[in-house]
Amino acid sequence: MSNTNLHKAKKAKSDEFYTQLSDIEKELEHYKNHFKDAHIFCNCDDHRWSAFVEYFSMNFELLGLKKLTAIHYDANNISYKLEITGDTNGDGKIDGDDLVKTALTGDGDFRNQESIDILKECDIVVTNPPFSLFREYIAQLMKYDKKFLVVGPVMAMTYKEIFPLMQSEDLWIGSKRLGVFGQPDGSMKSAGALWFTTLDHKKRHESIILYNEYKESENTKYDNYDAIDCVFNRKVIIPKDYYKNVGVPITFMEKFNPKQFSIIRFRKGTDNKDLRLNGKDQALRVIIKRKTKMKQFMDEIEKQGVLFAQEGIGLTEPLNCDEETFMASVSLYEDYSYKKDDEDFMKLSKLLPSNAAIAQAYWKENNTYED
Fold it and tell me: What is the rounded distance in angstroms from the CA atom of residue 272 to the CA atom of residue 60?
């Protein structure tokens, strides 16, 4: 065997991780509303091993799917696709017995044109792609603007091709970790893995409850970046009363709530070297920052416009100012966020158009910060 073929064989062997049906059921429970009337594409799935094909076949009607397509890579033969579109065998139900097998012209590689053609047609991709090709796989999904829920290695969060997508909220982590996978010989193997997705789920919006107050002895400042470290005695301690930049382990991304925190940067200090604490490198830290309620509010305004803000606190009269003026009003109120007495609000309200005082009403209803 040539060195090239030997390398390919070793890589193929290292990619043989079969997701267990129980893990699929636990995770996909959180996305059922996304699957209705959807064409699901499992583009790295041999039906002989794939629990994804089994899951979607068994639950085709329950999920209200429109179509299921599955293909897999076969290095030595022409591959094929499996599809379900309805009750093809006429037994009155839709399940795995309705899978229709059609030969492909190639080996089923997700990068082949016939695979890409199916990708363009589908609505959501759900699968366990080859870990060794994870960067390339995600890049393809992003290129074709596809919704997806896929399994990937834990360390993929640190890839320079992946972390920026999490920072920009173009993808995020799923609900649960995976730890044990099946092997071709029937054995089980441990491997740290996560779900990476563009499908929204409830856990993503759960805020982390913060208990501790800021202590300089526990939250030391980095040598090469203006932020404090939040790991003390191997525990992550984010102060509830600290609103500047803080550093947390990369695993924090599994709990990241975009309405509670902003992601500032990953790993490097202002000198473009790993963050250092008392002269020691602190690799794989993420710099984050707490959002005030005003920041959360302004994010929603940016996404949904002034009308959202108006309806959000029950105003019935239209705003008497444009969005730019309103945003300026909100920003001014943010400057007063540390003071809650009415006198300050009254002084400031004189500077603003009457209807722009929506910001004042917002503050009075929602307090200042979310602890």
Answer: 50
pTM: 0.78
212 domain-assigned: no
Q: Alpha carbon 215 to chain centroid distance?
A: 31
Domain extent for 322: 293-366
Report the alpha-carbon distance of residue 189 to residue 183 in Å, rounded: 7
Pairing of strands 67-71, 285-290: unpaired
- The residue count of the chain comes to 371
Q: Over the stretch 207-255, which tens digit does the pLDDT of each residue have?
A: 898 989 999 988 999 999 999 999 988 889 999 888 899 999 999 999 9
Q: What is the DSSP string of 286-351?
A: EEEEEPPHHHHHHHHHHHH-HHHHHHHTT--SPPSS-HHHHHHHHHHHHHTTT---HHHHHHHHTT
- Residue type at position 259: K
* Residue 41, domain member (yes or no): yes
Least confident segment among 81-85, 121-125, 142-146, 338-342: 338-342
